[in-house]
């Protein structure tokens, strides 16, 4: 009286899914907390007039998203590994909410691509200014280096020789400023961004299907066990 082949496959798919989700969740939460409580950025959150700035909103999103992902992982991993129906039901509900949110965010990012691109560029400028004023905060430096190498840009000027944050720029000669590149990249790749959101939503739906199959398998096993003991005793 155990799970059949399909149930076992779904169980290990969910375990793998939760492992990947946990890694991403810890990365988001760790970066968000570092930016929130770092000595060079903590003061921004204590100034009321800056509470609506792109940087504050971006850090808040990172912390919230990372926390939600880890909560989902906790229910999913416990339910899959221990074959607990209650945890899998909660996990399934959370996946439905996340899948709907992913699809809506993808559609919103596509229809409002100019505004979203400008907001992301503003978030970059805020991080750049904090890095320069904060004497090179390591957390912000790592983030800027990743952005510069990914997009092939260098700071707010694009010229490495005069950049205040030149140590975060790529080794190659660059003549593109990052705020302009970020806005253009998001606008020109809006369809790709929407596809990523929709693809992530499809991945969540796949995990939801596996959770549903595993729930049915666990229910069947429990019913067989109940019938067995009823027949014996």
Automatic annotation (TrEMBL):
Pfam families: Tetraspanin
Similarity comment: Belongs to the tetraspanin (TM4SF) family.
Topological relation to the membrane, as annotated: Multi-pass membrane protein
Location of this chain's protein in the cell: Endomembrane system
TM region positions: 12-35, 55-76, 88-110, 192-215
Origin superkingdom: Eukaryota
Protein name from the UniProt record: CD9 antigen-like isoform X2
Listed GO CC annotations: endomembrane system; plasma membrane
Main location: membrane
UniProt-listed PANTHER family: TETRASPANIN (PTHR19282), TETRASPANIN-1 (PTHR19282:SF216)
């Amino acid at each position: 009286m155990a799970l059949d082949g399909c149930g076992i496959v779904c169980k290990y798919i969910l375990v793998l899914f939760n492992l990947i989700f946990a890694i991403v969740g810890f990365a988001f939460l760790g970066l968000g907390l570092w930016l929130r409580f770092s000595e060079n950025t903590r003061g921004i959150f204590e100034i009321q007039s800056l509470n609506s700035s792109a940087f504050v909103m971006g850090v808040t999103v990172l912390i919230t998203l990372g926390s939600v992902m880890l909560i989902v992982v906790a229910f999913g991993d416990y339910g899959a590994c221990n074959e607990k129906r209650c945890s899998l039901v909660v996990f399934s509900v959370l996946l439905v909410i996340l899948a709907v949110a992913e699809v809506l965010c993808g559609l919103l990012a596509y229809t409002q691509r100019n505004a979203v691109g400008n907001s992301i560029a503003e978030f970059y400028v805020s991080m750049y200014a904090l890095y320069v004023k904060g004497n090179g905060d390591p957390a912000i430096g790592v983030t800027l280096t990743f952005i510069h190498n990914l997009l092939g840009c260098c700071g707010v000027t694009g010229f490495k020789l005069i950049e205040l944050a030149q140590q975060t720029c790529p080794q190659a000669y660059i003549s593109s400023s990052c705020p302009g590149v970020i806005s253009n990249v998001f606008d020109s790749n809006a369809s790709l961004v929407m596809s990523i959101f929709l693809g992530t939503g499809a991945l969540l739906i796949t995990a939801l299907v596996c959770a549903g199959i595993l729930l049915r398998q666990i229910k069947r096993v429990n019913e067989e066990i109940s019938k067995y003991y009823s027949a014996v005793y």
